[in-house]
Write a structure and sequence with these properties.
Shape: globular
Strand content: 15-25%
Strand order of the largest sheet: 2-4-1-3
Largest sheet: 4 strands, mixed
Distance between the termini: 38 Å
Low-confidence stretches: none
Length: about 130
C-alpha cells in the first residue's frame, strides 16, 4: 500500500521458495527477534527500500554500522538498532539489501524502476544460492 516501500515483501515472495528461513516481518521486524535467534543464523539479510539519494531502482548493500548513511522505510523500530542487537545476540553477519525507491506514498504497487530492480535482485540472489548449493 505504500508504493516502493513494498520492495521487501515483493522481493521476498520472489525468492522464498529457495531460502530456508525467509520471514516477512513487515513493518515490525523486532517482533521476530526470538524466532531469528532460535534459528542461530550465520547471516541475516533484511530486504527493504533504502533512500540514499540515488536514482530510483539502484541497489545497495548496507552493512551493520552503516545504517546512519541512509534513510529507511516505515518501521516501528530503527533497523540500525535491530541489526546491532541481532548481530550481538547471534554473532551473525547482518546487512540490508536495499533498493532506492521512487515513491513512498499510498499507491497500488511498485514503480516500474523499482519493480525492475526487484526482479534483477531476485535473480542475483537465486544465482548465488544455486552456486552455494553446487
Amino acid at each position: 500500500m505504500w508504493g516502493d516501500d513494498g520492495i521487501g515483501p515483493v522481493l521476498l515472495d520472489s525468492i522464498k521458495d529457495h531460502v530456508h528461513h525467509a520471514i516477512d516481518a513487515g513493518i515490525t521486524p523486532e517482533e521476530y527477534t526470538g524466532i531469528i535467534k532460535r534459528l542461530d543464523p550465520s547471516v541475516i539479510v533484511f530486504l527493504d527500500a533504502v533512500d540514499w539519494g540515488a536514482e530510483p531502482g539502484r541497489i545497495t548493500i548496507v552493512e551493520r554500522g552503516e545504517v546512519s548513511r541512509v534513510r529507511m522505510g516505515i518501521h516501528k523500530i530503527s533497523l540500525e538498532i535491530l541489526m546491532e542487537y541481532l548481530g550481538e545476540e547471534t554473532g551473525a553477519d547482518v546487512f540490508i539489501i536495499g533498493i532506492q525507491p521512487a515513491v513512498i506514498a499510498q499507491s497500488s504497487g511498485l514503480s516500474p524502476r523499482t519493480s525492475q530492480a526487484v526482479r534483477y535482485c531476485a535473480g542475483v540472489i537465486l544465482s548465488l544460492l544455486d552456486r552455494e548449493n553446487l
